[in-house]
Task: structure prediction
Amino acid sequence: MGGVAEGAMSNAVPTSRTRLVVRRVLAISAGAVFVYAGALKVRAPLEFANDLSNYHILPWTIGVRLAFYLPWLEILAGLALIFHRLFAGALAITGVLMLAFIAATIWAKVQGINVACGCFGAASSNLTFTSHLVLNSSILAVIGILWCTRERRAGGASAPNFSA
Result:
């Protein structure tokens, strides 16, 4: 009877392999979102520059430069998440991007500006403010989970050792 109880307990607690698979699925999913969003913007950088300009946060000249730069950053960071290369850096970049996107969306709403975010091309124009925030917050939550559960290198960021 002890064997049955032990078997039931092992099924209740996720194994390290299950956690690894879940983390990889989350990383690939988040990476795919960034690659897709970046690829849509790479195809129409001036349209994306217009979307950035609609937020009334940045001057046009900076918005145009960002419109040519940000999509490539999203694509490269997304690929890094998918292929698990430079993973911590990709998580940091995508996390900062998501925070900036969320802040810009809230800023526009507070200012009474009704903007299409431009995140996913024409499909973005169908998103409400609430659905946009929920989508971006969900992506940010996934990035946060991946950040908190990432593998850390030995000798990397760890608690200081004060013993002599």
Remarks:
- Residues 19-148 form one domain.
- Residues 152 and 158 are 9 Å apart (CA to CA).
- Helices lie at 2-12, 16-43, 45-53, 60-83, 87-110, 129-148.
